[in-house]
Design brief:
The structure holds 2 protein chains of 2 kinds. Chain A contains 15 helices and 10 strands. By secondary structure, chain A is mostly helical. Chain A folds into 2 domains: 235 residues, no CATH class; 188 residues, no CATH class. Chain A has a two-stranded antiparallel sheet with strand order 1-2. Chain B has one domain. In chain B, the strands form 2 sheets. Chain B has a two-stranded antiparallel ribbon with strand order 1-2. Chain B has a two-stranded antiparallel ribbon with strand order 3-4. In chain B, helix 1 packs antiparallel against helix 5, helix 1 crosses helix 7 and helix 2 runs parallel beside helix 8. Classes of the chains: A mainly alpha, B mainly alpha. At the A-B interface, helix 2, helix 3, helix 4 and helix 14 of A face helix 2, helix 3, helix 4 and helix 12 of B.
């Protein structure tokens, strides 16, 4: 098919990236949206503002649909780990079973309370009781992201285990969770998930405003989501910087590959853009002096390890440079959009809700945020090649030897296409057939019909 | 009790939990679909939706729990079963994905669509069939391990084996039986006389096939894996107890008395049979290659997993209790007097 000859390692990698690439869209929504729902409901109760309460309610209704896809694709990747990477899971079962197990508990906790939350909107006299039901959902969803990222951090920087002759002999279950990659990875994953969801929900509000539906409900939605997005983007930029410093110290080969940094030097420049020729010459790149040293160590004179000091068979693929650069470009655009919105909100509030260009940019920010997540994960995962467990097990040693992985790849690709199409159709139909204005009129919310 | 036995008991219990609640779920999906072709949908639709909507996500977790747990306690299972199960495992994942997603699309979306109902109704019956292949494979004879440790799955052999087909039959029939027995209880609580009559008929209709296919599997094991069969005979009292529980459960439904108790007996019926089967299977996980003593996880990891498990249960049991109180035992909710979606 794609290659002459059947290579289970290759197909296993493609199938795993396909499943994960599809899952993380819904997983990100699953982590971030409950927090936004909680914010809206809390403001709604505190200010006794039915618009915010309706916002929470409508978000929650759409959220369930995406949760369903998140749950089923999450189950898929959970099982695929053992089906496609049996030798790896044999080792992982010894070393990182604990966070995997805890992730399931967090998921369990979330599943129970999400079911309760969705079906008890008007069941309690005290509205705060219903709000408190959402807290375990937020804790559960962020908790499962937390634990599963710990597993990934271990794969990047294994600790808490003693390796002898390629086999793990001594394990500290809790020690293995405290990988040096853990703090930056976990916080970056959480904050960027919140950020992405804030942008997605902002884009929905912006879309309605752009369509001329200028009810105050949409303005409240836009303000809440964009202010959150602004806060989260600053936080994720700061954590992103710490991630660079982590890489310099613990995974220098990944950083060097991202930046096409070959010679170990002090005052290392950062390369933006450009293309790499066959003999590793960089053409058309923009060189920013000292920037890599600053990024890596916070000091313009610091020494940054280059790829030439790393054995060639341990080099990650160099194309991740392109991924990293486009990711950073997306981040820059999103920061600009969020910042302009904040300035407008401060100087000329009305314009923030009516400027066509502002609203259009916000709509663009949502897919950019999702793309940034995808780019970030791909460069992070490909950047640790050739290792599946850095320094312990190579990816090629972890894969299944089964035949038929190629057939499974086709089946799953079809499944994801069908799911993607249906989920979008169901969501659109859901909100078209029951607009916010109609629902406000139904629920006798003041201003339901006002224009 | 050694850590190994403790570990497998915990996992087996989760699998049992999954068996019961997934059966209710899968069967209900099928009945819901079946009733719509036979024109009885309006009679039973409401009670099924009211039960399933808040709990479907929880069902899935029991399965995830089991397979994450087994890799944690017995890392070698990932290697043997992972390699062998690529095809049946992938099919099961795809069916689970279709079912879960289309269930949500159908019940939370704006209107119910026949195509969506068909997808989740039909996939619900195929999932138990595909998952049951794991149990079949664990009996041995369907995978080959060469001297270098390479695992080959003998797909044709599984497909041609009468034993594997009896297991599939039992899986499908029990799903329908367990589900109908539960819905009978739930309809009675909902005081929904029409629904009650429909699901009660389903329950009684599926009771005889369930016990017949159980017997079939029992005897199929005797020729497929005599060693396991012998150990099951040593535990014969458990299977007798299971049969008695079956008689009590069906009697109660027949006479329309104490339906809650009747479902408890259904759980006991399957509990005795399931634990009897499992205990007879020990110490093997995968006959004859893998026992629970081969490459058990390290002691600190076992202690870590068990501690987390106990802490987790302290969190889960009150939460599950709350879920059941709000949706299973709240008379107003069950009778449809609260619809707060």
């Amino acid at each position: 098919m794609l290659l002459s000859g059947y290579d289970p390692v290759f197909y296993s990698r493609i199938l795993t990236s396909l499943t994960l690439g599809f899952h993380i869209i819904f997983a990100t929504i699953g982590v971030g949206v409950p927090l936004m729902i909680a914010l809206a409901e809390w403001i709604g109760i505190k200010r006794d503002d039915p618009h915010y309460l309706l916002l929470a309610r409508r978000w929650a209704r759409g959220f369930v649909i995406t949760v369903a896809v998140g749950v089923v694709t999450g189950t898929a990747i959970g099982l695929q780990l053992s089906l496609l990477w049996p030798s790896f899971m044999r080792v992982a079962g010894q070393s990182i079973a604990l966070p995997l197990f805890m992730e399931t508990f967090a998921f369990f906790f979330e599943a129970i309370f999400l079911g309760i939350y969705l079906y008890t909107w008007d069941r309690f006299k005290n509205r705060m009781v219903h709000f408190w039901l959402l807290i375990p959902v937020v804790i559960g969803s962020s908790g499962s992201a937390f634990f599963i990222t710990i597993v990934n951090a271990f794969m990047n920087a294994p600790v808490g285990v003693t390796v002898e002759g390629g086999k793990i002999v001594d394990i500290s279950p809790f020690g293995a969770m405290l990988s040096p990659a853990m703090p930056t990875k976990v916080t970056h994953v959480l904050v960027t998930a919140y950020l992405t969801c804030a942008f997605i929900l902002a884009a929905i509000a912006a879309w309605s405003l752009l369509k001329g539906r200028n009810h105050v409900y949409y303005k409240k939605a836009l303000k809440l989501t964009m202010v959150s997005a602004f806060v989260f983007i600053i936080a994720s930029a700061m954590i992103g910087d710490l991630s660079g410093k982590y890489l310099a110290k613990y995974q220098p080969e990944k950083l060097a590959a991202i930046e096409w940094h070959f010679e170990t030097t002090a005052q290392a420049p950062l390369i933006f853009g450009g293309i790499l020729t066959e003999d590793n010459e960089i053409k058309y790149g923009l060189k920013i002096p000292f920037a890599l040293s600053i990024l890596a160590h916070g000091n313009p004179n610091a020494v940054v390890i280059g790829l030439n000091d790393i054995p060639e068979d341990e080099h990650p693929p160099l194309w991740i440079h392109y991924l990293f650069d486009s990711k950073m470009a997306f981040v820059a655009i999103m920061t600009l959009i969020a910042a302009v919105f904040m300035i407008l909100l401060w100087r000329n509030r009305n314009k923030a809700y009516t400027s066509k260009w502002m609203l259009r940019s916000i709509i663009v920010a949502a897919p950019l945020a999702v793309l940034t997540i995808e780019h970030g994960w791909i460069f992070s995962e490909v950047g640790r090649q050739p290792w599946i467990l850095r320094g312990i097990m190579r990816t090629s040693e972890g894969a299944t030897v089964s035949t038929h992985v190629d057939t499974m790849l086709i089946l799953f690709a079809l499944l994801y296409i069908v799911l993607a199409i249906t989920v979008v159709r169901v969501l659109i139909r859901m909100f078209r057939s029951n607009t916010a204005e109609a629902e406000m009129a139904d629920r006798l919310i003041p201003g339901g019909e006002d224009k | 009790m050694s850590y190994e036995v403790l570990g497998i008991t915990v996992l087996w219990t989760f699998l049992f939990g999954y068996l019961i609640i997934a059966s209710i779920d899968f069967g209900a999906g099928f009945f819901s679909f079946y009733s719509s072709i036979t024109g009885k949908r309006h009679l039973i639709h409401n009670i099924i939706e009211r039960y399933l909507s808040p709990v479907w996500e929880v069902t899935n977790v029991f399965l995830v729990f089991f397979f994450v747990g087994i890799v944690g306690f017995f890392p070698d299972t990932a290697y043997y079963f992972g390699t062998a199960l690529l095809i049946p495992g992938s099919i099961a994942i795809i069916l689970l994905a279709i079912r879960g997603a289309y269930y949500a699309f159908n019940s939370y979306g704006t209107r119910s669509k026949p195509a969506y109902m068909f997808l989740y109704g039909a996939s619900g019956l195929l999932i138990p069939a595909s998952l049951s292949t794991v149990l079949t494979i664990s009996e041995g004879g369907y995978i080959e391990v060469d001297s270098s440790g390479k695992v080959t799955f003998l797909f044709e052999k599984l497909f041609a084996s009468s034993y594997s087909w009896t297991v599939v039959l039992l899986a499908i029939v029990s799903v329908l039986y367990i589900s109908a027995m539960f819905l009978t209880y739930y309809a009675a609580r909902a005081k929904d006389v029409n629904a009650f009559e429909v699901v009660r008929k389903y329950a009684l209709a599926w009771s005889a096939p369930t016990i017949l296919s159980s017997l079939l599997v029992f005897f199929a094991i005797s020729s497929h894996n005599p060693e396991h069969f012998q150990r099951m005979l040593d535990l014969a009292w458990m299977f007798v107890a299971s049969f008695i529980c079956f008689l009590v459960a069906v009697y109660l439904v027949w006479t329309k008395k104490r339906l809650g108790l009747s479902f408890v007996f259904v759980m006991l019926q399957f509990g005795f049979a399931f634990y009897g089967y499992g205990a007879g299977h020990l110490p093997y996980i995968l006959y004859p290659y893998l026992t629970i003593y081969d490459n058990f996880t390290s002691e600190p990891m076992a202690i870590g997993l068990i501690s987390v498990f106990v802490l987790g249960l302290m969190l889960l049991i009150p939460s599950l209790y709350l879920l059941m109180r709000l949706f299973l035992f709240d008379a107003n909710y069950v009778q449809g007097k609260r619809e707060n979606h």
